[in-house]
UniProtKB/TrEMBL annotation:
Organism: Bifidobacterium reuteri DSM 23975
Designated name of the protein: DUF4125 domain-containing protein
Length: 210
């Protein structure tokens, strides 16, 4: 994908590419209901990618293309990595040997990013409790075999990024944390989410929650 493609077209191509990989992801117990819900998938992933700049979008699009060429599925790997918390024995036996290992340095850098994003998510939930209630549980300590937290999901996703993509993502989070006031990426993502759902603001969406 060249630099001439617009950000909107690039986002749409990424979401469609992820969806195609998602369709090829095997779920224990059969096909998951969310694998048949394109509108919700499109809304949630598009909202996230609307917080990304062009160079990060382009780098992740290359990751997806490279994965196809290598016979890998980044969505499958993402959910597999989450199992290190939700199903550790199965992860060790059936997942870990077959996915790329992360270096100690990469893990350390990811954990710094994750800590910042968990803090932002907690802040958002405190200010918008009704919308927060509809989100995933927050921390890995809350994981169960049936429930995956925001923290664990993020750890799984970041682990699939190439070094080039993660470096750009890491820089984005650092830049958002260093400005005053900080730019809370959870808040911006949820704002895009509710706007795609027909609301004008987070406050309007919060008020509409039961």
């Amino acid at each position: 994908m060249g630099s001439e493609i617009t950000d909107e077209a690039l986002r749409e191509a990424i979401v469609r590419h992820e969806w195609n990989q998602f369709q090829d992801t095997n779920n224990e117990g059969g096909r998951a209901a969310c694998q048949g819900n394109w509108p919700v998938f499109h809304q949630m992933r598009s909202a996230q990618f609307r917080t990304w700049q062009h160079d990060l979008l382009a780098s992740y699009a290359r990751d997806l293309d490279d994965a196809d060429h290598e016979g890998r599925n980044l969505i499958t790997e993402k959910y597999g990595r989450m199992m290190t918390s939700t199903a550790p024995e199965e992860y060790a036996r059936n997942i870990k040997p077959y996915i790329p290992a992360l270096s100690p340095d990469r893990i350390s850098r990811q954990e710094q990013v994750i800590a910042q994003q968990v803090a932002w998510a907690a802040d958002f939930r405190a200010r918008y409790p009704k919308l927060g209630q509809a989100m995933r549980v927050l921390t890995t300590s809350e994981d169960t075999s049936a429930v995956t937290s925001f923290e664990t999901y993020l750890r799984g996703e970041l682990g699939t990024y190439s070094e080039a993509t993660f470096r750009l993502y890491e820089s984005m989070i650092r830049e958002r944390a260093e400005v005053s006031p900080q730019r809370n990426i959870t808040e911006e993502t949820l704002l895009h989410t509710v706007r795609l759902g027909g609301f004008d603001s987070l406050a309007e969406a919060e008020d509409a929650q039961r």
